Amino acid sequence: MKHLLFLFPLLFFVSSGCKTQVKVSDNCGDGFVDPGESCDGADLAGASCANLAFYRVIGQLSCRADCSFDTSDCGGRCGDGTIDAADGESCDGSNLNANTCQTLNFSGGTLACGADCRYDTTGCLATCGNSLLEAGEACDDGNPTAGDGCGTTCVIEEGFTCDNTGSPSQCATVCGDDMKRGTEVCDGAELGGRTCVTEGYHGGDLHCTTACSLDYTACEATGRCGDGELQTTFGEQCDGANLGGQTCAGLGHTTGALACDGACAFDESACTTCGDGNIEGAEQCDGANLANQTCALQGFDGGTLVCGADCDFDLGGCYSVNCGDGSITGAEQCDGANLAGQTCVSLGYASGSLGCQGNCRFDLSSCTRCGDGAIDIGEACDGENLNGHTCGSQGFIGGVLGCNAACTFNYSGCHLCGNALVNPGEDCDGTNLAFQTCVTQGYVFGTLDCSPGCLFDYSGCSRCGDGVANDGEPCDGVDFGGLTCQTEGFGEGTLTCDVACTFSTLGCYSWTQISAGLEHTCGVRQDGSAWCWGVGTSGRLGNGATNDSLVPVPVTGLGSGVSFISAGGQHTCAIVRGAAKCWGENGQGQLGDNTNTDRTTPVNPVGLSSLVTSISAGEQHTCAVHSGAAKCWGNGYSGEIGDNYNVDRDEPTQVQGLTTGVTTISAGGQHSCAVVSGSAKCWGAGLTGQLGNNAFVNSYTPVNPVGLSSLVTSITTGQSHTCAIVNGAGKCWGRNNRGQLGNNSTTSRQFPVDVVGLDANVSVLSAGFEHTCAIQNGVAFCWGGNASGRLGDGTSTQSTVPVAVSGFSPTPLRISAGGQHTCGVRNLQAWCWGANGFGQLGDGTTTVRLLPTRVP
To answer: What is the pLDDT of residue 30?
Structure first.
């Protein structure tokens, strides 16, 4: 249920005249209730529609001829099987109004009806993935996917931990639990299938650090083939680029590039012997050895045959007699532009432009074989054909060898990483960090490591401490990178940064509720703590002292369970985990602890240790809703206790007739009002019409304000006037000397009148000493007396109609009209304006404020 209790406290001197007891009671009749009888004639044994838990508490209970109750005029009640929606019932017994867990937005389960005729959803299944932590869920990260810590059924997955302080849940892996999860590279003994060998080392033992990163310190990087060291005792001919000074020529070849293969043996495939005079393999000739061939034998008319440097015939010295006539004859391959229909491609080359030489032989100089996939003379590779070579055979430790467009090896994918030497393109190699540290790399401290790819691993380095919030650091010193308490969802406070450059929101807070009293103010923060400021006389601030405070001070002993607070005349009350607490002035028993002793710290009103849903501190009395019943205590001179007497009460006393169905209550100057099952009830002082029953007299028991028998959702009492929200509209009645009724007049009214302009969508209404405030459609309005600027419109001129509070929109959450000041909550921040002689605005000064000012 919602409680609109922006109690304003109210000041006025209360006469200390004679408080003679007045008791009005009826004769019970002439019947007598015998055992087994519920009633007898007019004798109802003290029963009523109200105390029999019927909703029509003003109904007429009577007795049937058989001495059983006749409840036909009492309306319905919870448990009769009929849903009385107008009385707040969602269900009744087995009658669930055709609803199920699914229609109430749960994923399944069994819906039941509670003893209070409200839906009992404890048997319903929560909707996993809606970012809300619901019954039966261990987490809810906003999605139903697995593998991110919060599983498909909103249970925390093994190896993860989830923080549920906000919405959605924030889940992270648990490093050190021997379970590799999420982004962890490893965890304890779980290495994800990795070994020193898979990481590019020759052997050894791979481990995992306490930060869940790989530890290579026990891997072997030397003493094996591939370490760059030539170890002939182990049969190595070479190792990587280390050829031991050997060359192709040293191995009996003429030219070429000697290499080392992955087994540390010489790779002579690129060595050639052309030029040794011996025709070998695909050689046509070798030096002067022409294999007895001549130009004539090659189909020419004459000329001199020679051997080319590539050991193929050079036919450039041969000639044909008819060469140049455009006709191809004899040994001619071509003649001028006549190429016999041949091209570079038809001749087996990959591409190019075929020409004809002066000796009528093809000019192949512009043809290229690179790209045909076959290894030709002068080509190291061709496309994907690497001729059996690898990075290892080319002297590297590992990687992927490629082939360039020119059919030469592409070594960009090869590396020497792992030979413990820092080669070009490497930052480091194994434990060889090239004398670098985290500090030389620009960090503040930490341990520099080398990655398996021979690049620096900065994960163990930190710039934390240099005063700059670098990448990966939420903060550093006083640099928060633009983060504030506000960006983190709070209204006020200061972020702090720890030595690990992680920020903390412990210094952040938000205001969720505020109450302006006579000359002091109190509020509740999001952590459930209570704070007060302003006049401290009689201990009304609750901090164990009686001195004033210009800034908020914490109320002693309430901890973090405060859900609501109400500042009155010279005392304050709150609801703490369902229990009532009060402190401050107690001369009339307004603290309810069965004494008249002032208290500087909270005490317990008698009998209200649980089930308190609404509380309101008035001028010298207090009222609360306990288990649906209205209770009042303190000054009772004008009948404000509502027990049919005009005497003070030092402990909570039942308001006559209001034993059930009470949803909210409000204590004013010398009168009180409540909402009972959607209708308004008022009692106490009525000399200015504040009871709204079309009279100007006091009443010691509840009366009905005219026309407010239904659709009332909130009621608020000022010093001598009252206001209520009825079907979303604002209505006021009572004293109107300052225009506090908002009906564009200063004439007091003994019945409810409409507040100008507030005919719909009013969400908050608060009556103060001689002014009133409201929130409509996300805009704050005030009207009535404006001494010291309590209306917040930048002036001190009273207004008989609502005026907008300047600078307090859009979307204010709370507003509370006090003595001569007003306070509210917007954007999780507390704001106050008006009189400030005792620091009741909480801004650290005693300066009057005509406009809203923030409370720190």
So the answer is: 53
Q: Which residues lie across from 820 on neighbouring strands?
A: none
State yes or no: pLDDT of 32 exceeds 90.
no
CA atoms of 724 and 714, how far apart (whole Å): 5
Torsion of CA 500, 501, 504, 508, to 10 degrees: 150
Number of domains in the chain: 2
The pLDDT of residue 350 is above 90: no
* 223 Rama sector, left if φ>0, alpha if ψ -120 to 50, beta otherwise: left
Summarised one tens digit per residue, pLDDT across range 645-702 is 999 999 999 999 999 999 999 999 999 999 999 999 999 999 999 999 999 999 999 9
Encoded tokens for 510: 């938000």
* Average pLDDT over every residue of 16-23: 36
* pTM (global) more than 0.70: no
Q: Within a 13 Å sphere around the CA of 545, how many CA atoms are in the beta-carbon half?
A: 11
Query: DSSP code of 157?
Result: P
Cα torsion angle, 342, 345, 346, 348, sign: positive
Last residue of a domain, one of 584, 610, 636: 610
Rounded to whole angstroms, the Cα distance separating 235 from 230 reads 9
Torsion-angle region of residue 634: left (phi > 0), alpha (psi -120 to 50) or beta?
left
Domain that includes residue 515, residue range: 510-610
C-alpha dist (Å) from residue 402 to 258, 260, 351, 418, 662: 18, 17, 21, 20, 84
Q: Which residues contact 616 (CB under 8 A, 6 or more apart)?
A: 5, 7, 566, 568, 573, 622, 623, 624, 665, 666, 667, 672, 717
Q: Quickly count: other Cβ atoms within 10 Å of residue 597's Cβ.
A: 11
To which residue do tokens 């448990």 refer? 79
> pLDDT digit string (tens) for 735-746?
999 999 999 999
pLDDT tens digits for 433-442? Answer: 999 998 899 8
Tokens of 242: 């280390």
CATH number of the domain residue 564 falls in:
2.130.10.30
Is the residue at 550 inside a domain? Answer: yes
Evaluate whether residue 202 is within a structural domain.
no
